[in-house]
Amino acid sequence: MCKRLVFIQVIFILFLAGCVTLQPKESIPTCKINGVTYYSLIPLCEAKGINWQYDTFTRVVVLRKGTDRINLKVGDDLILVNQRAVLLSRPIEIYEGAVVVPAKFKEQIIDVLFRKEPVLPQKISSFVISKKIRKIVVDAGHGGNDPGAIGRTGLREKDVNLDIAKRLALLLKSEGVNVVMTRSTDRFIPLGARVGITNKSGADIFVSIHSNANRTRSMNGFEVYYVASSLNDAKRALVTAKEGNLNLEGSLFASRSLELRAMLWDMIYAYDRAESIQLAKNICRSVGSNMNVKIIGVKDARYEVLRGSRIPAVLVEVGFVSNYNEERMLKNGFYRQKIAESIMDGISDYAQELAMVEADRR
Ligand SMILES: [Zn+2]
């Protein structure tokens, strides 16, 4: 091969790499910006098996591996690591058309968070291992002068919901989880107040218990809802940001612009929806394998308690009081206990998934 051809190949490789390689060991292209070493983000993600999405319009990058997420924005030094705000020493930049990140970000965040393969934890209480699920809001739908749906033989939804919610709360407490109930007696709590309790609780997830009804009396089965994907998250985020009480890193956010806080809330809402779907799937899977009940599945809806929650939130419809057979079953305390246990197992499986990543980090 002639020398000239080799020379052209070298130039071509350098051109592809975008910037000069300083550390051949990891073969991830780096460059210097104002004396600081930066890594090219996409090759870095590919080397680490990290899933990445880049929105060229908003210049927001989302990195995902397992249950971990990092949100970054080109030009900003403030990033979100699993919903927690972290301030970098230098901002994310674009260098020769490629997104680049400061070397410290790679060493202190990427290398620590996204290690090789997750290790399955020992079978201990998943809630104890998963430090991410310490507190849960359990919401019994309806109550007081709002009976909810009423069955053909008079079974009231509010009573079924409260009984299952109380059983679920007991089971969670026995696993060492803190539980906040929006109501523990037969009283009316407006939807806005339920949202308020949830957002002030400092809980990790929200689980609402309801029973279904339909004019078609043959309708039966179990389903779980998460907040509708069609909801305008950007608008919702702006409203939340305007309220100003961003409960993340307090003072760090107070000084930030409304636009940036709204953007962060937008990311949090997207993250929460993804987590809610995982939680909903786990609950459906658990009920489907523990009970002889038809699983309608996971659906999205615009229910106020889901829209307003600033944490991952699901609404469980345990069965149809309008269906003769399910109304009869829901009257039975053993059946309600079995439902509570199955929901509990689903939440536990979800916590276990989070724990798999936690275990790897030790
Ligand atoms: Zn209801």
Explain what this protein looks like in three dimensions.
The chain is an alpha/beta fold. The protein has two domains: 13-113, Copper amine oxidase-like, N-terminal domain (Copper Amine Oxidase, Chain A, domain 1), CATH 3.30.457; 126-361, Zn-dependent exopeptidases (Aminopeptidase), CATH 3.40.630.40. The protein contains twelve helices and 15 strands. The chain has a six-stranded mixed sheet with strand order 11-10-12-15-13-14, with helices on both faces. The structure holds zinc ion. Zinc ion (ZN) binds next to loops.
Which terms would index this structure?
362 residues; alpha/beta; Copper Amine Oxidase, Chain A, domain 1; Aminopeptidase; 2 domains; six-stranded mixed beta sheet; five-stranded antiparallel beta sheet; 15 strands; 43% helix; disordered N terminus; binds zinc ion
Which structural category do the helix and sheet elements fall into?
Answer: alpha/beta
Number of domains: 2
CATH-scheme architecture of the largest domain: 3-Layer(aba) Sandwich
User: What topology, given as strand order, has the largest sheet?
Assistant: 11-10-12-15-13-14
Ends distance: 51 Å
Main sheet summary: 6 strands, mixed
Mean pLDDT: 84
Number of strands: 15
Helix content: 40-55%
Report Rg: 24 Å
Q: What is the H level of CATH, i.e. the homologous superfamily of the largest domain?
A: Zn-dependent exopeptidases
Strand content: 15-25%
Q: Could you please say which CATH topology of the largest domain applies here?
A: Aminopeptidase
- Overall geometry comes to elongated
Number of helices: 12
Poorly predicted segments: 1-24, 119-123
Q: What small molecules accompany the polymer chains?
A: zinc ion
CATH class of the largest domain equals Alpha Beta
The H/E string reads HEEHEEEEEEEHHEHEHEEHHHEHEHH
